[in-house]
Amino acid sequence: MNKALESKIPIQLISSNIEVAKAGKIPGGKTEIPFEFPLQTKGNKVLYETYHGVFVNIQYTLRCDVKRSLLAKDLSRTCEFMVHSQPQKAKVLPTPVDFSITPDTLQNIRERNLLPKFLIRGHLDATNCVISQPLTGEVVVENSQVPIKSIELQLVRVETCGCAEGYARDATEIQNIQIAEGDVCHSLSIPIYMVFPRLFTCPTLETTNFKVEFEVNIVIVLHDDHLITENFPLKLCRI
Amino acid sequence: MAAVQWHSRGRRYEAELQRCRLEATPVDFGDYHPLKPITVTDTKSRRGARKGSTSSSSSSSSSAAPDPLSSMLDGTDPLSMFAAASAGETPGLPHSASAGDLGRKRREREEEAVGSDFEPWSAKRGEILARFTTTEKLSINLFMGSDKGKAPSPGSSAVSEKVRTRLEELDDLEEGSQRELLNLSQQDYANRIEELNQSLKEAWASDQKVKALKIVIQCSKLLSDTSVIQFYPSKFVLITDILDTFGRLVYERIWTMCSDPRPLPESFSADDVNDTAKETCLNWFFKIASIRELIPRLYVEAAILKCNRFLNKSGIQETLPRLTAMIRGIGDPLVAAYARAYLCRVGMEVAPHLKDSLNRNFFDLLGTFRQIQGDSVQNQLVLQRVEIPEYLTLYSPAINWILQCIAYRAPEPLLTEMMERCKKLGNNALLLNSVMWAFRAEFVAARATDFITMIKDCDEAGFPKHLLFGSLGRSLACADPPEAERLPILNEAWKVITKVRSPQDYINCAEIWVEFTCRHFTKREVNTVLADIIKHMTPDRAFEDAYPQLQSVIRKILTYFHDFSVLFSMERFLPFLDMFQKDSVRVEVCRSIMEVFIKHQLEPTRDPVILNAMLHICKTMHDSVNALTLEDEKRSLALLINGFIRMVSFGRDFEQQLSFCVEARATFCNLEPVLVQLIHTVNQLAMETRRVMRGSHSRKTAAFVRACAAYSFITIPSLSSIFCRLSLYLLSGQVALANQCLSQADAFLKAAVSLLPEVPRSISVEGKLRPSEGFLLDFISNFLSTLLVVPDHPEHGVLYLVRGLLNMVQDYTWEDNGDAKLRVYINALPLLAAMSQEAYLYCIPRVDSNETLYGGDPKFLSEINKLCETLIGQVLDHLKALGRDESVRRQAALAFSLFGCLLAHGDLRNNKLNQLAVNLWNLSHKHGHCDTRASVRTLEFMKHQAQQPDMAHLSDTVQRLALQSRT
C-alpha cells in the first residue's frame, strides 16, 4: 500500500477499500469469503515490484477489518503480498564489456611504484542482465608478478533517495562469490558465473524520488594482500 | 540247562551256491532284456540323442514290458539331461544372466549405464586409502556456520544486514561454531570424518537441512587444504564419501516428494515432477550457488548433479561443462586434479554418455600441467619437505581415474590422440604412467616398444621409472605384445628394473614382470629373473619386508609352470624358496606349491629332482606342526603330503619304493594320517609284488614282502587311534597271509588280539564321545571271518587265535546293560561251524588252512564242538539271567538270534540240538516281543529248506514251532 522512506513519511502508491461481506451474522464454524479487486494506482503513480532494502522498502499490505457491534472490539489482521512487475516487452541488449587491468589502469592508489606488475584481462557477456539468468563472462590472468590469492565477484546494491537534505546513497554487498582460489594458471580463462540471489535483487529501479541500482566488482586479492577491484554497473531487468 | 552237544551242519558250499543261483538263460541279441536297451542306446546314439524313449534303437524291444527305470524317467535320463544342460548352457548361462543384469542396471540408471567391465570407484577406494598414508599430525578446521557469504536466511528481510550478521553469530555460538582439531593421527582423522558423515545423516534425518548443508560445505572446504600433502588422496576419498552421501540424500528426498500418488518411473522426465518438488530442488541449487568459496561450491554442486534431472532435460548436459570450466579457478594443481576426478566420477555415474566434458577435463588438466614446475608448488614442496617424485605419485589416482573414464569403451583413434598429446607434453612420465594404467591393456601391449622408448626418454628426476615399468608390466600381464617384440621388451625392462636401488621398489616392479616372463618365456628366462630377485632381496635380509610380493611371484610361476620336473630344474627355484624364512609364510608357500602339484601332477613320478624338492617342501610343512597346531591344520597338511606320497612310484623298482617309504616315515613321523597312508602304500606294494610274481614268490621277493610286513608291524604301534591300529593290523595280517608270510600274519593278528583289551568304552568321533561298542563288534566280526583261513601255529594249541580272541572278549569290560559279549559268541558259532567243514568256504592260494592241516581230524572237530558248547552254554546262562532281570525284550532278541544261528549252522537232526532250537523259539515268542514278520519269514525259509535232500527233518521241526498270534 505504501512505499516507506527511512526518515520520511511513507508515500502511498495505492489505496482502495472494498466491502467483502454485508452486515449480518456469520454462522459458527469456518466461513470462507472470496474477494478480488484490481490494483489501481493513486493518481499518476507507478506500481513498483516488491522490494526490501535498507533505505528503500516497497511493500504492499492487505488489511482486513471486521466491524462488530458496540460491545465487542473490532477485529483486524494485516498481511503482506508480493508484486512482480510485468516482464518488459522490449528486447534487452546484452551490451558486453571487455576489460583489462594493469597497474596503470588503477585509480585511487597511494604509491604506484610499489605495485607489482600484472596484466589481467577479461570480459562480461552482458551488463544488461536478465535477473533470472546468471551473470557470465571470463577473466584471464595473463601474468602477475605476485601470486594471486583469490578472485571474487562482489554484487553490490546501491540505493539512492532524494530527501530534504539532498541525496542519501548507500551501497550494500549482497553477495560475494569466489571464482578463483590460489595461484591460478596463467593465460587460462576462468569463468565468471554468478546467479543473482532471489530475495535481494530486483530489476533496476529509477524513479524521481529514489533509485535502486546494482554493480558488480571483480576483486583480485594478491598474495601480499593487495586488493585490486574493477567495478561494473549492471542493469537488471525481468523478462 | 545241561551242556548241549554241538554238531555242525555239514555244508557243500558249491552245491548251495549253485542252488541259490537263478537259472542262467542266455539272451539272444534280439531278445528283450530290461537292462539291455539302455546299454544299446548308449552305444548307438552319440550325444544328446539319449532323450526320447530308449526303445527307438533296439527294434524288437520294449512294447510288452517297458523298462521300469526308463519309464520312470519319462523318457529323459536326468543325468544326461544335466550333462546336456551343462554342455549346452555353459556359455549360454552367464550370457543370459548378464543380459538380465544389464537390463536391471539399465532400469536403475536410465541411459546406457556403465557396464560391469568398468572398474568402479569403490574398487579404487581401499587401494588409495592404503597407499597414501602419513605419520604426520593432521588438523580439521571447521567453521560451523560462520561462512558469512552463505545463503542469507530468507524471511529476515526486515532486519538490517548488521543485525542479521550478529544474530547469525549467536546461532553459531550455540552450535559450537568454530572447532579446530589439531594433532590428529591419520586414524583419528578418518574417524572424525566418519563422525561428520554420521552427523550429516542425523541432521538430515531430524530435518535440519541447513545444518546438513553446513556440514557438507565445511567438509568440502577441507579439500582446499593441502598441508600434509602426502595424505591428500586419502583425504579426498574420505570426504567425497560424505559428498556422495549428501548427494544421495538430496536426490532421494526430492524423489519421495514426487512419489505421491505413485512413485516416479525410473526413466522419468522433468515433466513428471510436481511443482513443489521442482521448487525444493531449485532452492537447493540457489543455496549452493551462493556458497562463497569456490571449492565447496564446486563440490557440493557436483554432488547433487543428478538432481538436475528433476528440473529439465538438458540440465546435466549444461552443468557438466560449466563445472569443468569452474575448476580452472582452482590454483593448486593437485586440488584441481582431484576436483576433476570427482567431477568425472559423478559424471560417469549420472551421465556416462556425456564424454565431451570428460575429454575437456583431461585437456584442461594437460593445460595446467606446467603449474607443477611453478613457484607456488615448488615452494610448498620445500616447506613440506616432499620430493618431486613422491609429489607426482600423488596425482596418479586422480589422473588414472580420469583416463579410465575417458578410455572406457573409447574408440582407438581417441586413445591414440590422447597418447600423442601426452607425448607432446615433453614425455611427461606422470601422464604416461596413467595412460598405461587406464587404457586398455591390448592397446598398451600393441605399442609396448613405443612405450619403452618413451619411458626411457623421461626425465630421471621426475616420476620414478620403476613405477612406469610397473604400470607397463601390469598391462603386458593381461595382453600380449607382438611375438617378435617380446624378448627385446623383457630385456629393456629388466635392464631398468635391475638398477632400482630400493629393495621395496625393486620387488614391487619385479613381481609384476614375473607374470610377463612366465607367460611368454621358458624356464631359462624365469630362472634368470629369479636369480636377479634373489640377488636384490638377500642383502640386509630385505626379503623380510617383501613376503607378499615374493609369495605373489611364486603364485605367478605356479600358474604358468605345471610341469614340476621343469619347475624344479630351475636352479634358483629352491634358493628362492629359502628366502621365505618366516615360518607361517614358508608353510603357506609350500602349501600353495603342493596344491598345484596335486592338481596338475597326474602321472606318478620317480623323477629324483621332483622327489627331492617335494620331500623338502613336504618336510617344511611337516616341521611346522607343533603342539599348538590345530587339528584342522594338521589334517589339511597331512592331506597334501598324502597327495604327494600317492604320486610317487618307482615302477618295478619295489625296493626303492620301500626305502622311500622308510625315509618318508622318518620325515613325517608327526602326522598320523601320513603314517597310515604309508602303511597302505607298503601293503599295496606287497600285493603288487605278489601280482607281478603271479602269487609264487622267489626267495628274493619273499624276503621283500617280509620286509614290507616288518615295515607295517613297526609303524602301526606309533599310531594313537586304536581302531586305526586294529584295522591296520588286520589288513596287514591279511596282506601278509596273502603273501604266504605265515608267522608275520600270526604276529599281526596276535597283536590285534592283544590290543583288544585296550579299546576304551567310548571314543571321540568328530569331537563327540560315542560308545565304541558298535565299532568293536564290527571289527571282531571282520576279524573272525579272517580267522577261518589262518592256519594254526604248530607250537600253540588248536584254534589258538580263536581261543585267544574269545578269552579277550570274555575279559573285556563291556557295557553293563548290553549283550555285546553274547553277540560276539553267537557270531563265533558260524566261524566254528565253517571250520568244521571238509572243504572251507574260501581259502588263500598257496596257504594251507586248517582244513588241510588237520584233514578233518576227529580230535580237531571235537575241539571245535567243545568250544561251541561252551559258547552256547554261556549264552544260555545269560538268557536265564535276563529272564530273572525281567529284561524280556533283550532275552527274546538274543534267543532269536541264537535260534537263527542254530538253524543255519547246527545239525538239527540231532535231537538235543533240535530240542534246544525249539526251546529258543518258544523263549523268544514267550513274551510277545518278537518281530512277527521275521518269524513268518523264518518259517517259510525252513519250509523251503525242508524240500532239500538231507533237510527233511526240518519239516518236523516246523510243526513244533508255534507262531504266536498277535495280541
TrEMBL record, chain A:
Which Pfam families does the record associate with it?
Vps26
Gene3D superfamilies documented for this protein: 2.60.40.640
| One GO BP | intracellular protein transport
Q: Give the family from UniProt.
A: Belongs to the VPS26 family.
Q: What's the protein here called?
A: VPS26 endosomal protein sorting factor C
Organism of origin: Myripristis murdjan (pinecone soldierfish)
Q: Which gene encodes it?
A: VPS26C
